[in-house]
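If I may wish for something, please sit down with the protein I am sending here and say whether tokens and residues agree:
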Amino acid sequence: MNKLENSHNLIKTFYPDPVKTNISPASGFRSRCEFGYRNGSYTMVSNGQKLYISKLDLAHPAISELMPKLSIKINDSYLLHKKLFQVNFRANNFNKIIVSLIYHKEVNVELLTESSRIAKDLNIEIVLRSKKKLLSTSNEILEELINSNNPFYLYQTDQTFFQPNRYMVPRMVNLVESFIKGPKDLLELYCGCGTFSIPLSRIFNKVFATENNRKSMMCLDMAISKNNISNIKYSRLSCDEVSEAMTGRLFNRLKGEKLVDYNFSHLLLDPPRSGLTDDVISLVNRFENVIYISCNPETYAKDVSKLTDYKISKIEFFDQFVNTNHLEIVSVLQKSK
């Protein structure tokens, strides 16, 4: 049974109709890649086997082209390759790249100087990381233009989550926008860098977004400024704290913002693979319309089974990673009348 059949079987109790699947191109789609580094080569695991590679066709072309050039530079420098165990890449639509070199040794100024020379030669930015320490040849911020129906800018660092498939992100945004009916105000949990917060601010009267990652909050703030948006407010609140804030409790992190003053018509959820906690399930039940984006069909089905007062009104699959078991879901749940 393939992943599409399996995913449909998981949700057919809640949505028996056929589900449209959006297919990604088979190569050049990954704008974020992570590799091990051993014996002078990049490593990855496929079907339980460790592979030694020099480039990756699945990666953004700029990343794939850079990989062998960077490997030569690393291997030519004892300082750079000693105790290097991981290399991460992030690229944007302007072909700008941030490379993260992660070490089993403390990064220092000497290593930064050597990295700066390599970064200049290859026209990239390099972030050096070791336990509790980070150095960078730049401000480690990557600007991205999302070419959806209404293009917008986002920002990311090597410490933030960012949707890795550069072809699918605009399509997912377009679909979510098309799903919105009767918008008033939006509450968003797990907002990340603002992938949905920014475009949906053009549809909703007000948006209140929450996220626990400080770097993501910084990137969201930059995106709000770059896109000239004035109707997004955000805070680092747990789900319990959001529930309390909705009943009137004030937190210093809200900076005077009162959630009781919002007229929320929709809740947007884009949780990690583990799905929704019981606290979030309780919070969901306060809303009539829930936009649920999931990267794990199994936890999605488990969560929907707990939301007994809701039905799936709209849903599509996104095959972001072809020839793997991963599948993304974009859906709307509506409370039964």
Remarks:
- The chain has two domains: 3-25+143-335, 32-142.
